[in-house]
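Please review this one:
***
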Amino acid sequence: MSIVLSASVVRVRDGLPLSASTDYEQSVGVQECRKYFKSLSKKLGQLPDRCTLKTGQYNINFISSLGVSYMMLCTENYPNVLAFSFLDELQREFISTYNMMKTNTAIRPYCFIEFDNFIQRTKQRYNNPRSLSTKINLSDMQTEIKLRPPYQVSMYELGSANGFTSSFSVECKSASKISSAHQRLEPVTLSGIVAFILSLLCGALNLIRGFHAIESLLQNEGEDFSYVIAFFLGTAACLYQCYLLIYCTGWRNVKSFLTFGLICLCNMYLYELRNLWQLFFHVTVGVFVTLQIWLRQPQGKSPDYNV
């Protein structure tokens, strides 16, 4: 019997479950697949936007878009076109119900559990293909799957096979990190634009003060050259924050945190040359830009609804 067993909605950047169907079947095979769900959730940012994992009797299909992934578990003989049409419906409804800011700032797991009501209704429809075929047009999805079939995720890419970690999985992980540097980021928000401008402003202020420090150093031999270095390091840190805000790179969040740390160190060293308001402004801008870098995450392929 070919049926949809369960579905869940997961945030791509950290695998946080946002919603899920609440009627899991309790068979051993299904319980084992739930472990694969968790493993996949941690690697969504490294995988293409449309994938299938075959686990024997069951298939796990998922699509990712705008920082959210929609996953489903079905029997191995469930038609691909119905599976991805089901996920597409979940995606449309979720995007139209919840805005991106809510999903990006969610902290608690399953904070959109009420979406389960829609998952249950849709699952019932897709488990009854006779009534379903008269309500939806599958030809577009069938054509899209033929032109761009789902990527087949292997057990090796989950990091383990037959109980041990393989060297191939390590290679896949490294390759995924390299390819992630070429991913597109989510659309920039108004707060992101403000952060970019403020970071440029702080960099420009540091640069101007650095040139003034050089002039003072040339006129007075007793001046400390380390102040010049601190101003130019502050400039470089602000400009690098702008770069991280715009482009997707490996270890992007870690780099943003380290860059913010450098900004704080530079301002601590320049304490004697700046008043408290100036120090507060530079550090606050650094915090704001770092937060925007963390919020602007890589996105999947944007949905195309033939609009």
User: Anything to note?
Assistant: Residues 46 and 179 are 8 Å apart (CA to CA). Confidence is low (pLDDT under 50) at residues 160-182, 301-307. The radius of gyration is 25 Å. The beta strands are 4-11, 17-20, 50-54, 58-65, 68-75, 151-153.
